[in-house]
Design a protein that fits this description.
Number of strands: 5
Shape: globular
CATH class: Alpha Beta
Radius of gyration: 15 Å
Order of helices and strands: HEEEHHEE
Structural class: alpha+beta
Helix content: 40-55%
CATH topology: Trna Endonuclease, Chain: A, domain 1
Number of domains: 1
Distance between the termini: 45 Å
CATH architecture: 3-Layer(aba) Sandwich
């Protein structure tokens, strides 16, 4: 039998994966090609890496009860973590070196999504 905290973590994991799937679908509909999901590098992780033309988008996906809660859940610490992972991703893919890099947030609340393009600058 699972402990209550393990069950909560498992539910949060399922919710996060569902939110990432919805976000990937939204970005695909907007003409982006998903290059990576849950990219991990030392010191950071990126939920989604997408590309459209010469634009590389590093996306943080947040699921909360409201869209505003989801947007405000992306802390300065998370932004630094995503930026570190983004630099690692570009370093591993030299063909992307000439792409413009943008940081986006996709907020998810139930089936509602909000895509904040250029949510912050490094």
């Amino acid at each position: 039998m699972r402990r209550p905290d393990a069950e909560a973590r498992a539910a949060a994991e399922r919710s996060g994966r569902r939110a990432e799937l919805l976000a990937a679908c939204l970005l695909t509909l907007k003409g982006f090609r998903i290059l990576a999901r849950r990219f991990r590098a030392s010191g950071g992780e990126i939920d989604l890496v997408a590309k459209r033309g010469r634009l590389l988008v590093l996306v943080e996906v947040k699921a909360r009860r409201s869209l505003d809660e989801a947007v405000f859940a992306v802390t300065p610490r998370a932004r630094r973590r995503i930026a570190r992972a983004g630099r690692a991703f570009v370093a591993r893919a030299p063909g992307l070196a000439d792409c413009a890099v943008r940081y986006d947030i996709v907020a998810v609340a139930g089936l509602r999504l909000r895509h904040l393009a250029d949510a912050w600058r490094e």
